[in-house]
């Protein structure tokens, strides 16, 4: 069995019931704090999981606090979920995505998989992600981002936009997490982009950078 802690941003009775039922079977604690950012950052558990209940993937991720994605495991539970949505979530750093109408055992299976170090997405979305990565050409958004950033910022940008968290980027580049945060702030300032989700949209979909 596992030891760890499970969180959600959406504290409806139904969502909390899903969490408690699943957490009990996996020996996970349920954190019901309303100040999710503080609770998440202060958690001492080795394994922590955040469930994101999303209505529209593209619209809702814009409002997620990027600080939450610097650590832990993230699962999207979606009212609607297309292959493109799944690919976008993979790039953003999510470990899994399922439909909100999925039976209870699916959530249990999902959490078990990600705790074992696996991703939990459809085969179609994983194939598309891999093929896109292999055959990647620069979008308009990528060109604009690459021409407005320094060599080090480009390096950080490429890793972040391919799904790595700040901690993972810091480890890969053998620098401190504060250095990565500084580079990210510089990228936001130069490109007028507000957060990680908008950055990912610009990088992968050729959105205008104003």
TrEMBL record:
<dbReference type="GO" id="GO:0003677">
    <property type="term" value="F:DNA binding"/>
</dbReference>
<dbReference type="GO" id="GO:0006355">
    <property type="term" value="P:regulation of DNA-templated transcription"/>
</dbReference>
<protein>
    <submittedName>
        <fullName>Response regulator transcription factor</fullName>
    </submittedName>
</protein>
<dbReference type="Pfam" id="PF00196">
    <property type="entry name" value="GerE"/>
</dbReference>
<dbReference type="InterPro" id="IPR016032">
    <property type="entry name" value="Sig_transdc_resp-reg_C-effctor"/>
</dbReference>
<keyword id="KW-0238">DNA-binding</keyword>
<dbReference type="InterPro" id="IPR039420">
    <property type="entry name" value="WalR-like"/>
</dbReference>
<dbReference type="InterPro" id="IPR000792">
    <property type="entry name" value="Tscrpt_reg_LuxR_C"/>
</dbReference>
<feature type="domain" description="HTH luxR-type">
    <location>
        <begin position="138"/>
        <end position="207"/>
    </location>
</feature>
<dbReference type="InterPro" id="IPR036388">
    <property type="entry name" value="WH-like_DNA-bd_sf"/>
</dbReference>
């Amino acid at each position: 069995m596992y030891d760890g802690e499970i969180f959600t941003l959406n504290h409806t009775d139904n969502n909390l019931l899903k969490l408690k039922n699943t957490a009990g079977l996996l020996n996970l604690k349920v954190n019901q704090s309303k100040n999710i950012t503080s609770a998440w950052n202060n958690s001492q558990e080795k394994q922590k999981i955040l469930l994101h209940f999303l209505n529209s993937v593209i619209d809702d991720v814009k409002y997620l606090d990027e600080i939450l994605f610097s650590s832990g495991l993230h699962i999207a539970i979606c009212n609607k979920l297309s292959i493109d949505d799944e690919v976008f979530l993979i790039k953003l750093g999510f470990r899994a995505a399922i439909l909100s109408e999925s039976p209870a055992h699916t959530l249990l299976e999902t959490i078990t998989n990600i705790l074992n170090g696996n991703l939990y997405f459809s085969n179609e979305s994983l194939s598309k992600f891999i093929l896109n990565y292999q055959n990647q050409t620069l979008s308009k958004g990528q060109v604009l981002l690459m021409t407005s950033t320094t060599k080090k910022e480009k390096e950080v940008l490429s890793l972040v936009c391919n799904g790595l968290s700040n901690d993972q980027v810091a480890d890969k580049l053998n620098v401190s997490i504060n250095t990565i945060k500084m580079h990210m702030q510089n990228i936001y300032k130069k490109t007028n982009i507000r957060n990680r989700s908008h950055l990912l949209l610009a990088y992968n979909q050729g959105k205008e950078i104003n």
